[in-house]
Amino acid sequence: MVKNSYISIFLKEQEENKENRGSVEFQVVSFTNKIRRLTSHLELHKKDYLSQRGLRKILGKRQRLLAYLSKKNRARYKELIGQLDIREKKTR
């Protein structure tokens, strides 16, 4: 639960700056929060296929945002995935 508490602290810091809600970092953090909530929901409700579909859509959105951020600013990308404790994308 340390990860979730850190995300909530990070979100509170971001919410103080209302103009940063459209930033890539804020969007990735909010998608990560939704992903973790849906994952815990799906552990209880294994046959909830609509939630599985929603989870896959959010995962794709987060993946595209992270790809954009890694192209534009590699340092911010590394810092963000370190803070959120998510894996770096695989390279071919």
UniProtKB/TrEMBL annotation:
Organism: Ambrosia artemisiifolia (Common ragweed)
PANTHER family associated with the record: RIBOSOMAL PROTEIN S15, BACTERIAL AND ORGANELLAR, SMALL RIBOSOMAL SUBUNIT PROTEIN US15M
Alphabetized InterPro entries for the sequence: Ribosomal_uS15, Ribosomal_uS15_bac-type, uS15_NS1_RNA-bd_sf
Gene name of the record: rps15
Entry's localization field: Plastid, Chloroplast
Protein name: Small ribosomal subunit protein uS15c
GO biological process: translation
GO CC field: chloroplast; ribonucleoprotein complex; ribosome
Similarity annotation: Belongs to the universal ribosomal protein uS15 family.
UniProt keyword terms in alphabetical order: Chloroplast, Plastid, Ribonucleoprotein, Ribosomal protein
GO molecular function: structural constituent of ribosome
PROSITE patterns, sorted: RIBOSOMAL_S15 (PS00362)
Assembly mode: Part of the 30S ribosomal subunit.
